[in-house]
Amino acid sequence: MSSSSEYMVGPTIGQGSFAHVVYAVHKPSGRTVAIKVVEQLSIRKHPWLLQTIMTEKKILQSSDSNSNEKKVSRPAWVVSLWAAFYDAHHLYMVMELCSGGDLEGLLSQAGMLQEEEEEEEEDSDEKLDGHRSLSSVQRERWIQHSVPFYASQIVNALQYLHSKIRILHCDLKPSNCLLQADTGQLRLCDFGSAIEMDRQSTTKTTAAASDSSSDSSNRNRTWIPRGTTEYSCPEIIRATSPLALNEGVDYWSVGCLLYAMIHAGKSPFCHDSEALTVQAMKEHCQGRIGFHHQQLKPTDKHTRNFQEWLGLSIGLLREDPEDRIQFWEENISRHDLLQWDPAAVDRGDVILPRPHWKDEVENAVLKDGNEGWTAFVQL
């Protein structure tokens, strides 16, 4: 069984509500890894947290075993779990290190965040904080080459989850799309909210058991932890009792992701508060304008393929999950926009990721895991 003593521990490279991720080196092999660290205190305060951890561990192990059984190369769609262990203070999950960070970081790197575009408007001739917003030409190249490159991987990753390992992710968002720095290959992570599609009919929850109709109407229903509100579908946001879920849950999130990739990194319902986000979603479902539209330059709205990407995004943001599934089957799986040019990577047209923590990791003094749990404390 693995233990903390097998690792040299570096800086924090990721942060969540109940966990942080550290860069580390496996001493025996020299392999660089990412270790997800969850405090035992958080698990005691929030008992449901342990269930999400065990769900993620089971899914990641299942993905690996499915690939091994078929004796084929493991698809590069799900992050690999290499070890898991615990001590009195923390629970640890050792995963492959995705050297390019995540899609959220890439959007920032590409200059697609609204704050950087506003700075560019104020001073188009100077670099600000070492960053430049994309020019009109660069934005067109981003939408023409980079968006298809990454969007096609998200689509393929979902098709793998749904058809091969029969999983609904239920928390798709930019920070859960990890990337490799040298190739831009995408891997999905954070399966704590995921659901095994074939087990919904046998899932029993406290909420369902306490419902007088749980033996009938709730037989195919289950609870899931709510994901990030601005990427969650209406049926999850509105849920007050166990519900049956299908692929439409993830298709809604893809609609939000596509929108974010062409709208300065912002999701369509992004607002300053969760209440406003939910209100915007309600207005959208009622047929009123609810999107948090960015102040884009006029040229952006006429950028090549922009309107087509926007159409695909909005097409997936339908209130009825069955309508989303139908739209996906008719418009997404084989759409021309998702047929990216492999040579575009070699030409440098595709923006490859460079994580914000790269310099910090390269200059870090690693702590010896022999020190025990203190080596993993977030500073």
From TrEMBL:
Keywords: ATP-binding, Kinase, Nucleotide-binding, Serine/threonine-protein kinase, Transferase. Belongs to the protein kinase superfamily. Residues 202-217 have a biased composition (Low complexity). Residues 114-126 have a biased composition (Acidic residues). Its EC number is 2.7.11.1. Signal peptide: none annotated. GO terms for molecular function: ATP binding; protein serine/threonine kinase activity. This is non-specific serine/threonine protein kinase. ATP binds at residue 45. One of its GO terms (biological process) is intracellular signal transduction. Residues 111-132, 200-221 are annotated as: Disordered. It is an enzyme of class 2 (transferase). Residues 7-338 form the Protein kinase domain.
